[in-house]
Amino acid sequence: MIQALRGTRDILPEEVGYWQLIEATVREILSRAVYQEIRVPIFEQTALFERGIGEATDVVGKEMYTFSSRGDKSITLRPEGTAGVVRAYIQNKLHAQGGVQRLWYSGPMFRYERPQAGRQRQFHQVGLELLGCDAPRADVEVIALATDILRTLGLKNLELEINSVGNSQDRAQYREALISYLEPYQGDLDPDSQDRLTRNPLRILDSKDPKTQEIAQNAPKISENLSTESKKHFDLVLQLLTDLKIKYQINHCLVRGLDYYTHTAFEIKSDDLGAQATVCGGGRYDGLVKELGGPETQAVGWAIGMERLVLLLQQLESNLVNIPDMYIISRGEAAEAQGLILAQKLRNLGLRVELDLSSSAFGKQFKRADRSGAVACLILGDAEAQSNTVNLKWLASGEQQAITQSNLLDMVEELKLKIASLK
Ligand code: ATP
Ligand code: MG
User: Which end of the chain is more exposed for a tag (fewer CB within 10 A), N or C?
Assistant: First the structure.
């Protein structure tokens, strides 16, 4: 049989609740900050990514899915979201509206990588871009939104790492200093890093090779070699994070892989993800809009890897996704019809209700009710159907009461509170 391609996977119904929870949370939190969704194509001209991401990066050098279209144009499946959003911003003259543009996106991205937990060839990102503002407050607004999203989803053990790569002059100067420092160690660097020494030396700093990491530890630090202006930007970002009580750790080796990053670079990592620890990566990219043919526009943004977020949510103990509030058990023709009607009424009143459709023995239905994770269960048999009553059973304590169906519907608000406290 024909199998799905390596590095791609199906998101099955048992998992999709996590995705929907992430999407709903992102939509809610970003709309409160007046970010608007933008949807851009999944493939673009290859040149967009070559210029926007940089030819010396892994993404462009090794990871892109590039093919020639029937018209002989070179086309690439998007490996990330920013380049496409910026192209759309320029092409549709969103800058002409003046002021800042706050945009977000989500969808599949494609990179030819070695698949492993938290690393796929088709993966998904949700990301945002704040265009048209160079204030350090903008950097901190976007970081705060990322931490809000992750916190609202219930994630813990997250660490924000931050660095500044300065402006393009700072970077160019630092590049020279770094090359001079690294050259004597050339033979000790891993092969990829040797290759990067002249092409993309900053990337050597985040090499995963232990020997290279050791060498990088003692390299000159970019955030300590910034111009006065860049240092002021970085210091203010750090101060504002402190004001917002967002904890951070400065990581001198954090430079991100993409050429267009300036000033702030950051990552949010989790201890619970093994090797693929970074959930969110972002930073400022003041050079990109101009590089892609638009007017000079400062910008800052981030992207969250959704697969990694789902892995983290699945590890949470209090996992509320896909769990009904109430499970309905019924047996007998009249009882089953009433069960169906009750399920609909309770759902319309805002409860999440799972109806057992099996008509099997009560014992079997009870087992499924327990397995569903519901805290409450409604039981309807012939006797209940005749008297228009229902048995309400609290599954953890076994406590049970018979009430009329209309009383049950009247006390839904009370039930919701009790269910929430028992979850
Ligand atoms: P990594 O160091 O893990 O390769 P990256 O620097 O290539 O990450 P970015 O380009 O900054 O990642 O993308 C932002 C986020 O998208 C990452 O932090 C991660 O959560 C997610 N991501 C990137 N590549 C993949 C992938 N192949 N599969 C799943 N998620 C990914
Ligand atoms: Mg990568």
Answer: N
User: What stretches of 218-251 show up as alpha helix (H) in DSSP?
Assistant: 228-243
* Residue from 11, 78, 125, 279 to probe ligand 1 pocket by mutation (most atoms less than 8 Å from CB): 125
- Concatenating the DSSP letter of every residue in 118-147 gives TB-SEEEEEEEEEES---HHHHHHHHHHHH
Asked if residues 381 and 329 have their Cβ atoms less than 8 Å apart, the reply is no
pTM of the full structure: 0.83
| Nearest CA residue ID for atom 12, ligand 1 | 281
Q: What is the CATH number of domain 13-167+227-315?
A: 3.30.930.10
Nearest CA to ligand 1 atom 23: 305
Could you read off the pLDDT of 272-288 as tens digits, one per residue?
Answer: 888 788 999 999 999 99
- For position 318, what pLDDT does the model report? 59
**CATH number for the domain running over 326-414:** 3.40.50.800
Q: Which ligand 1 atom is at minimum distance from the Cα of 120?
A: 28
Q: Which atom of ligand 1 is least distant from the CA of 113?
A: 27
Query: CATH 3.30.930.10 spans which residues of the chain?
Result: 13-167+227-315
